Amino acid sequence: MLLIPKTILGKWSLGLIVAMPALFFFGSSFTNSLYKSVPAGSSIIEDIAGRPALALTMIAGMIAGISAFIVGLIAIIKQEERAPLVYVATSIGMLLILFLIGEVLFPH
């Protein structure tokens, strides 16, 4: 059994899950550099209006993680992908979805 995925969807899942933390890191770097004096908005709409590069980069990271879950699940079920890295990518995407559901249900 190889670690590297064989199917196109498996490779996409792996690429998307690698892009997710890269986008989060890149977006969080805007906090102390580009938007140091701009306060955070109380809603996502206010944050996009006030700090668009930061908010849109973070949203792109979340979309990448959710997409990695969906694409990985399709690769595992439909294309019978068995590479362990695809299972890891799908699991990380699922954990992100559970985290986002928790944030919506129990905001702080």
Shape estimate: elongated
Let me know the number of strands: 0
The residue ranges in which pLDDT falls below 50 over 5 or more consecutive positions are: none
Report the β-strand fraction as a percent range. under 5%
Question: Helix coverage percent of residues?
Answer: over 70%
Biggest sheet overview: none
Q: In a few lines, what is going on in this structure?
A:
With 108 residues, the protein is mainly α. It is built from four helices and no strands.
Polypeptide structure, described:
There is one protein chain. The chain is mainly α and 108 residues long. It has one domain (8-32, 52-105). It has 4 helices and no strands. Helix 1 crosses helix 4 (84-105), helix 2 packs across helix 3 and helix 3 (52-77) packs across helix 4 (84-105).
Could you give the topology of this structure?
Elements: H1 8-32, H2 44-50, H3 52-77, H4 84-105
Helix pairs in contact: 1-3, 1-4, 2-3, 3-4
Provide the descriptors you would attach to this structure in a database record.
single chain, 108 residues, 4 helices, mainly alpha, elongated
